[in-house]
Protein backbone atom coordinates (compact mmCIF):
# COMPACT_ATOMS: atom_id res chain seq x y z
CA UNK A 1 0.00 0.00 0.00
CA UNK A 2 2.60 2.55 1.02
CA UNK A 3 4.94 1.66 -1.82
CA UNK A 4 2.18 2.02 -4.39
CA UNK A 5 2.26 5.80 -4.03
CA UNK A 6 -1.54 5.71 -3.74
CA UNK A 7 -2.88 9.07 -2.63
CA UNK A 8 -5.67 7.46 -0.63
CA UNK A 9 -5.23 4.29 1.42
CA UNK A 10 -8.48 3.46 3.23
CA UNK A 11 -9.17 0.57 5.57
CA UNK A 12 -10.42 -0.61 8.93
CA UNK A 13 -7.96 0.08 11.75
CA UNK A 14 -7.63 -1.34 15.26
CA UNK A 15 -10.92 -0.72 16.99
CA UNK A 16 -12.42 -2.09 20.19
CA UNK A 17 -11.09 -5.61 20.74
CA UNK A 18 -10.02 -6.05 17.09
CA UNK A 19 -6.36 -5.35 16.32
CA UNK A 20 -4.90 -4.69 12.89
CA UNK A 21 -1.16 -4.76 12.23
CA UNK A 22 -1.58 -2.49 9.20
CA UNK A 23 -3.01 0.64 10.91
CA UNK A 24 -0.06 2.83 9.95
CA UNK A 25 -0.53 2.12 6.23
CA UNK A 26 -3.94 3.80 6.04
CA UNK A 27 -4.37 7.55 5.73
CA UNK A 28 -8.17 7.21 5.73
CA UNK A 29 -9.05 5.21 8.82
CA UNK A 30 -12.37 3.54 9.54
CA UNK A 31 -13.00 2.67 13.18
CA UNK A 32 -15.44 -0.03 14.22
CA UNK A 33 -17.36 -0.86 17.37
CA UNK A 34 -17.42 -4.26 19.06
CA UNK A 35 -20.57 -6.27 18.31
CA UNK A 36 -21.24 -4.21 15.18
CA UNK A 37 -22.93 -5.98 12.25
CA UNK A 38 -20.73 -6.55 9.21
CA UNK A 39 -22.92 -4.25 7.10
CA UNK A 40 -22.43 -1.44 9.64
CA UNK A 41 -18.67 -2.10 9.69
CA UNK A 42 -18.60 -1.64 5.93
CA UNK A 43 -20.57 1.60 6.29
CA UNK A 44 -17.87 2.90 8.67
CA UNK A 45 -15.50 2.72 5.71
CA UNK A 46 -18.04 4.55 3.51
CA UNK A 47 -18.32 7.28 6.18
CA UNK A 48 -14.54 7.58 6.47
CA UNK A 49 -14.34 8.10 2.72
CA UNK A 50 -16.90 10.90 2.98
CA UNK A 51 -19.48 9.19 0.77
CA UNK A 52 -23.06 10.26 1.47
CA UNK A 53 -24.89 7.39 3.10
CA UNK A 54 -28.15 8.18 1.37
CA UNK A 55 -26.48 7.03 -1.86
CA UNK A 56 -25.90 3.56 -0.40
CA UNK A 57 -28.50 0.79 -0.40
CA UNK A 58 -28.40 -0.61 3.14
CA UNK A 59 -29.89 -4.03 2.69
CA UNK A 60 -28.63 -7.48 1.94
CA UNK A 61 -29.88 -8.93 -1.34
CA UNK A 62 -30.09 -12.66 -1.88
CA UNK A 63 -30.76 -14.10 -5.31
CA UNK A 64 -32.43 -17.49 -5.14
CA UNK A 65 -33.12 -19.89 -7.98
CA UNK A 66 -35.68 -22.70 -8.28
CA UNK A 67 -33.32 -25.32 -6.79
CA UNK A 68 -33.02 -23.17 -3.65
CA UNK A 69 -36.80 -23.09 -3.27
CA UNK A 70 -37.06 -26.83 -3.96
CA UNK A 71 -34.41 -27.54 -1.30
CA UNK A 72 -36.24 -25.33 1.23
CA UNK A 73 -39.60 -26.98 0.53
CA UNK A 74 -38.13 -30.49 0.91
CA UNK A 75 -36.21 -29.48 4.05
CA UNK A 76 -39.32 -28.08 5.74
CA UNK A 77 -41.36 -31.17 4.84
CA UNK A 78 -38.61 -33.60 5.92
CA UNK A 79 -38.34 -31.87 9.31
CA UNK A 80 -42.10 -31.55 9.85
CA UNK A 81 -42.01 -27.74 9.98
CA UNK A 82 -45.57 -26.57 9.38
CA UNK A 83 -46.67 -23.71 7.11
CA UNK A 84 -47.92 -21.64 10.07
CA UNK A 85 -44.56 -21.83 11.90
CA UNK A 86 -42.27 -18.88 12.34
CA UNK A 87 -38.84 -19.96 11.20
CA UNK A 88 -35.69 -18.53 12.75
CA UNK A 89 -32.37 -19.41 11.18
CA UNK A 90 -29.19 -19.11 13.23
CA UNK A 91 -25.81 -19.35 11.54
CA UNK A 92 -23.00 -20.31 13.93
CA UNK A 93 -20.20 -18.98 11.81
CA UNK A 94 -18.33 -15.71 11.62
CA UNK A 95 -15.69 -14.40 9.27
CA UNK A 96 -13.23 -14.27 12.19
CA UNK A 97 -13.29 -16.39 15.34
CA UNK A 98 -13.12 -13.31 17.57
CA UNK A 99 -16.50 -12.27 16.14
CA UNK A 100 -18.11 -15.62 16.93
CA UNK A 101 -20.50 -16.05 19.83
CA UNK A 102 -19.88 -18.61 22.54
CA UNK A 103 -21.83 -21.89 22.57
CA UNK A 104 -23.61 -20.71 25.70
CA UNK A 105 -24.96 -17.59 23.97
CA UNK A 106 -26.17 -19.62 20.99
CA UNK A 107 -27.84 -22.15 23.29
CA UNK A 108 -29.56 -19.51 25.44
CA UNK A 109 -30.83 -17.58 22.41
CA UNK A 110 -32.11 -20.75 20.73
CA UNK A 111 -33.91 -21.94 23.86
CA UNK A 112 -35.58 -18.53 24.34
CA UNK A 113 -36.78 -18.55 20.74
CA UNK A 114 -38.13 -22.10 21.14
CA UNK A 115 -40.32 -20.92 24.03
CA UNK A 116 -42.44 -19.10 21.44
CA UNK A 117 -45.40 -21.09 20.09
CA UNK A 118 -45.27 -22.47 16.54
CA UNK A 119 -41.63 -21.57 16.12
CA UNK A 120 -38.87 -23.61 14.52
CA UNK A 121 -35.18 -22.85 14.75
CA UNK A 122 -32.77 -24.00 12.09
CA UNK A 123 -29.12 -24.10 13.16
CA UNK A 124 -26.58 -24.08 10.38
CA UNK A 125 -22.98 -23.34 9.54
CA UNK A 126 -20.06 -24.66 7.59
CA UNK A 127 -18.75 -28.22 7.87
CA UNK A 128 -16.08 -26.88 10.27
CA UNK A 129 -18.85 -25.65 12.61
CA UNK A 130 -20.85 -28.91 12.68
CA UNK A 131 -19.20 -30.06 15.94
CA UNK A 132 -19.98 -26.70 17.52
CA UNK A 133 -23.63 -26.96 16.47
CA UNK A 134 -23.90 -30.54 17.74
CA UNK A 135 -22.32 -29.56 21.07
CA UNK A 136 -24.72 -26.64 21.53
CA UNK A 137 -27.80 -28.76 20.80
CA UNK A 138 -26.73 -31.54 23.16
CA UNK A 139 -26.70 -29.09 26.07
CA UNK A 140 -30.17 -27.69 25.37
CA UNK A 141 -32.83 -28.36 27.96
CA UNK A 142 -35.78 -28.01 25.60
CA UNK A 143 -37.36 -31.28 24.56
CA UNK A 144 -37.91 -30.14 21.00
CA UNK A 145 -34.92 -30.96 18.81
CA UNK A 146 -33.83 -29.01 15.79
CA UNK A 147 -32.65 -29.80 12.32
CA UNK A 148 -28.91 -29.22 12.22
CA UNK A 149 -25.93 -29.68 9.99
CA UNK A 150 -23.61 -28.05 7.51
CA UNK A 151 -24.94 -25.66 4.92
CA UNK A 152 -23.46 -23.47 2.27
CA UNK A 153 -24.21 -19.94 1.21
CA UNK A 154 -23.19 -18.37 -2.05
What does this structure look like?
Helix 4 links the parallel strand 4 and strand 5 (148-150). The longest helix has 13 residues, at 66-78. The chain contains four helices and five strands. The protein starts with 9 loop residues before the first strand and ends with a strand. The mean pLDDT is 81. 29% of the residues lie in helices and 14% in strands. The strands form two sheets. It has a three-stranded parallel beta sheet with strand order 3-4-5, covered by helices on one side. Strands 1-2 form a two-stranded parallel ribbon. Helix 3 crosses helix 4. The protein has 154 residues and is α/β, with parallel strands linked by helices.
Oligomer: single chain
What structural class do the secondary elements suggest?
Answer: alpha/beta
Q: Describe the largest sheet.
A: 3 strands, parallel
Uncertain segments are none
N-to-C CA distance: 30 Å
SSE pattern, N- to C-terminal: EEHHEHEHE
The geometry reads as: elongated
Number of strands: 5
Mean pLDDT: 81
**What fraction strand?**
5-15%
Count of runs of 4 or more consecutive helical residues: 4
The strand order across the widest sheet is 3-4-5
The percent range for helix content is 25-40%
Q: Gyration radius, to the nearest Å?
A: 20 Å
Brief rundown of the structure:
With 154 residues, the protein is an alpha/beta fold. Helix content is 29%, strand content 14%.
How would you summarize the topology of this molecule?
Blueprint: E1 10-12, E2 28-30, H1 38-48, H2 66-78, E3 86-91, H3 103-114, E4 119-125, H4 130-138, E5 148-150
Parallel strand pairs: 1-2, 3-4, 4-5
Helix pairs in contact: 3-4
